Amino acid sequence: MVGTIEAPIDTTATNTNGSHLHHTNGSTVEEKLDELRALLGKTDGNPLKIVGVGAGAWGSVFCALLQDAYGHLREKVQIRIWRRPGRAVDRTTAEHLFEVINSREDVLRRLIRRCAYLKYVEGRLGDRTLYADEILRDGFCLNMIDTPLCPMKVVTNLQEAVWDADLVINGVPSTETREVFEEISKYCKERIEHPVIISLAKGIEASIDPVPRIITPTQMISNATSVPIENILYLGGPNIASEIYNKEYANARICGSDKWRKPLAKFLRQPHFIVWDNGDLITHEVMGGLKNVYAIGAGMVAALTNESATSKAVYFALCTSEMIYITHLLAEEPEKLAGPLLADTYVTLLKGRNSWYGQMLAKKELSLDMGDSIKGKGTIQGVSAVNAFYELLSQDSLSVIHPEAKKPVAPVELCPILKTLHKILIKRELPTEAILQAIRDESMYDPRERIEIAQSHSLYRPTLLCHH
Predict the structure, then answer these.
(1) pLDDT grade, residue 117 (50/70/90)?
(2) Angle at 313 between CA 353 and CA 434, to 5 degrees
(3) N or C, where is the chain less crowded by C-beta within 10 Å?
């Protein structure tokens, strides 16, 4: 089939230590699949079609988790993943990939059995070029070379991938979500039933005209397609992709309409990956973008203070108070920054591509001129989010009363870390060291005061999320 790389799926798929995954609780897995199939109106002989759109680290791992759990039930479910074709694997990465393969006996045996090992030998020697979609077929994500996945069915033609999909997983960055789903909408116009879409994207856009407002990835998808918002959900949590695939215990929340969130939470839940559900879609989605903003600063602070626990704690107190303040501008009664929301923030500040990016900038191992798409890491979504949140919150039409000056100011004036990150990353007026001044200013007031301001209903600006 044009644009497709067929990957024979082993019915005895194994996890990362080589043990069998499926048949310990196969009946439970099959029952969960049957329940979702029934909700989607699937009949016998008509498999549930799940498609991942985008093959970054988390998008690839998410689809691989589903393949591991349900892929052996091939008469009832088909799982595939789309990524753009033509992305070459450079020689250095090919050499490293070869080392990873040879360090893992289970992976080595699998490739030899599938007659795929020789191309990695040739790739290491420079005798042939490997491509990202080609290696994904064998279970290797270009943004996460050190963590082999299960073999995947890869489709490089977007129309072929999505035209009959029942469940679509949005794994592309927020900066690409609108473009990709505008393309998808062309292929789904003739459909009678809308697909259900789960968005993994963490980021936002800001729109200033006619009024300042935030546009989240689920809203981008809804605007770009005719899919009703009740069929579009957001999944987020304290998720480091490679650790989750290596069976580190993790949890997440799927947020959205009553109709779909509970059945999908049950379907996605695995012994090592617990999925809860919540109706507060916007708070979780905005927090997903917001934490990436502050993770960049956390990485800078860690690098500049030689991992000082005290400095990192000071930064954490200040940045979380800014996050609480911002979410209270957006939602009348946002869920508190606690539980999974706080954990998601914590893990992203602690370890994630945005935190890593901040560290590399502070250590001068990366420069801003290199852009926000970094080899081996993918898109650093916090950079565009810094610009979006700053642009939005600097609008005078949203003014709040400054607690000391007692005069109206733009909301961003109460967010010194966000202002500083904007000057470092976007305007490039300050060096990374300026982040330390932002958290050490003697005139700075207690972050508790910012939280108290946030919790007064007078702060809420309903138009920011198109609420009236």
Answers:
(1) very high
(2) 70
(3) C
Rounded Cα distance, 318 and 439, in Å = 7
- Residue 438's Cα: distance from chain center in Å? 28
Residue pair 261/255 in contact (Cβ under 8 Å)? The answer is: yes
Would you state the pLDDT for residue 210?
81
User: pLDDT-derived band of residue 26, with 50, 70 and 90 as boundaries?
Assistant: very low
- DSSP-assigned letter for residue 138: T
Q: Residues 185, 159: contact at Cβ < 8 Å? A: no
Q: Is the peptide bond before 210 cis (omega within 30 degrees of 0)?
A: yes
Give the count of alpha carbons within 13 A of 467, CB side only: 11
Taking the C-alpha atoms of residue 128 and residue 142, their distance in angstroms, rounded to an integer, is 17
Distance (Å, rounded) from C-alpha 131 to C-alpha 152? 15
Strands (E), 46-156: 48-53, 77-82, 88-89, 130-131, 154-155
Contact (CB, 8 A) for 420 and 434:
yes
Q: Regarding beta strands 205-207 and 213-215, do their DSSP bridges make them parallel or antiparallel, or are they unpaired?
A: antiparallel
CA distances from 170 to 58, 59, 103, 150, 198 (A): 10, 7, 32, 20, 6
Catalytic residue, chosen from 291, 364, 375, 423, is 291
Confidence of residue 188 (pLDDT cuts 50, 70, 90): confident
pLDDT of residue 458: 67
In whole angstroms, what is the distance from residue 70 CA to residue 51 CA? 13
Q: How far apart are CA 459 and CA 411, in angstroms?
A: 9
